From TrEMBL:
Annotated compartments: Membrane
Protein name: Major facilitator superfamily (MFS) profile domain-containing protein
Organism, as annotated: Acrobeloides nanus
Membrane disposition: Multi-pass membrane protein
Lineage: Eukaryota, Metazoa, Ecdysozoa, Nematoda, Chromadorea
PROSITE patterns hit by this protein: MFS (PS50850)
Length: 71
């Protein structure tokens, strides 16, 4: 619903030269925010730790993720 509102507003701003660029840019903003959030705030997985850093780091990350929710 919000996309239709933004597209409607942007369509009145010089639709031939600037409007499509503004529409494309407004669609890119949420995806960039989502990428930044995923890149910096997702926890490390045991599979990624095994590939990048070895077995010891994999076991450490794996045990942390398994036992993190137990009280």
């Amino acid at each position: 619903m919000m996309a239709f509102a933004v597209a409607g507003i942007v369509s009145y701003i010089d639709p031939v030269y600037i409007g499509w660029r503004l529409l494309l840019g407004s669609a890119a903003v949420p995806s960039i925010i989502q990428w930044i959030g995923y890149h910096y705030h997702l926890p490390q997985t045991p599979r990624y730790a095994f590939v990048k850093e070895g077995v010891e780091e994999c076991e450490k990350v794996g045990f942390q993720s398994i036992f993190a929710h137990k009280s």
